UniProtKB/TrEMBL annotation:
Location(s) in or outside the cell: Cell membrane
Name of one Pfam family that matches: UbiA
Class in the EC hierarchy, top level: transferase
Residue stretches spanning the membrane: 23-39, 45-68, 89-109, 115-136, 143-166, 172-191, 217-233, 239-257, 278-299
Listed EC numbers: 2.5.1.141
Protein name: Protoheme IX farnesyltransferase
Species this chain originates from: Paracoccus isoporae
Assigned keywords, A-Z: Cell membrane, Heme biosynthesis, Membrane, Transferase, Transmembrane, Transmembrane helix
Lineage: Bacteria, Pseudomonadati, Pseudomonadota, Alphaproteobacteria, Rhodobacterales
Keyword Nucleus in annotation: no
Length: 301
């Protein structure tokens, strides 16, 4: 791993960027939904603190990921402007920030909510920083499949904050994110294949080609749909959520089918239009499901 030294004066925004705020926003939202829809509820101030510490833990994971992946980030067009490869923040600073925030977030979540949730957060940080970043990402085309569990844990942590445990509902929220993650990232890889190839990341598009990746994307849309709809049949679901889930999954499967039927020649000719459209839809897909859970909860209250 290359050691990166800062070459200029870092600004506050550079340290915020280390925390991957866009990824953190998804962590915060799904954890918040998991906490709110859980039975029993929490005092609003305690709930706010719990979500805040989960967010800090998510940011810590991002900083540790950027520290270790700086050599990859320096090669890829999408990431070469990040603070470490751009020379604005040193690798040592990113590592120190990530470790400090990891310890702070876990300790404070334990004090604010419960130690089961805190331990779950600690495991999630470890899973993302060590299991995914240091091992899976560089060693197997299944990197995003197995590693996607890290991004799927936050609603379970939120649920654990409110209940002190795990349930079918929280497992289904996990499954919703877990099975959504591969088609989401593989769609991105379809039109960013060269970046992953140059960086030596064994993404499915690099190791098996785009045709295989397209078939995997469609297969995962089929696997994902039953879990998304099943969640609507649990106590946290209902007609509002079910209506959104059925409509969105029908659309997701249809778009996945369209992507699967395309050839490289068609994709190159129109600038990967269908792949980019599917990727954008995947962004709305997850947000809409968790927003529907919130609306369903408020309607039923």
């Amino acid at each position: 791993m290359t050691t990166y030294q800062a070459q200029g004066e870092a600004e506050f925004g550079d340290y915020v960027a280390l925390l991957k705020p866009r990824v953190m926003s998804l962590v915060v939202f799904t954890a918040f939904v998991g906490l709110v829809v859980a039975p029993g509820g929490m005092h609003p101030l305690v709930a706010f603190c719990a979500v805040l510490f989960i967010a800090i833990g998510g940011g810590a994971s991002g900083a540790l990921n950027m520290w270790y992946d700086a050599d990859i980030d320096a090669v890829m067009r999408r990431t070469r402007a990040r603070p470490i490869p751009a020379g604005r923040v040193s690798g040592a600073e990113a590592l120190g920030l990530g470790l400090a925030l990891s310890g702070l977030s876990v300790m404070m979540l334990g004090l604010a909510a419960n130690w089961f949730a805190a331990g779950f957060l600690a495991f999630t940080i470890f899973f993302y920083a060590v299991v995914y970043t240091m091992w899976l990402k560089r060693s197997t085309p299944q990197n995003i499949v197995i590693g996607g569990a890290a991004g799927a844990f936050p609603p379970m942590i939120g649920w654990a904050c409110a209940t002190g445990g795990i349930s079918l509902e929280s497992l289904l929220m996990f499954a919703l994110i877990f099975f959504w993650t591969p088609p989401h990232f593989w769609a991105l890889a379809l039109f960013m294949k060269e970046d992953y190839h140059e960086a030596g990341v064994p993404m499915l598009t690099v190791t098996h080609g785009r045709d295989v990746t397209r078939r995997h994307i469609f297969a995962y849309t089929l696997v994902l749909a039953p879990f998304a709809i099943w969640l609507g049949l649990t106590p946290v679901g209902g007609p509002v959520y079910l209506g959104v889930a059925v409509a969105l999954n029908a659309l997701f499967i249809w778009r996945g089918w369209q992507v699967m039927r395309r050839s490289d020649a068609q994709s190159n000719a129109d600038g990967h239009r269908a792949e980019k459209s599917f990727f954008k839809l995947s962004l709305y897909y997850l947000f809409a499901h968790f927003a529907a859970l919130l609306v369903q909860h408020w309607v039923a209250a």
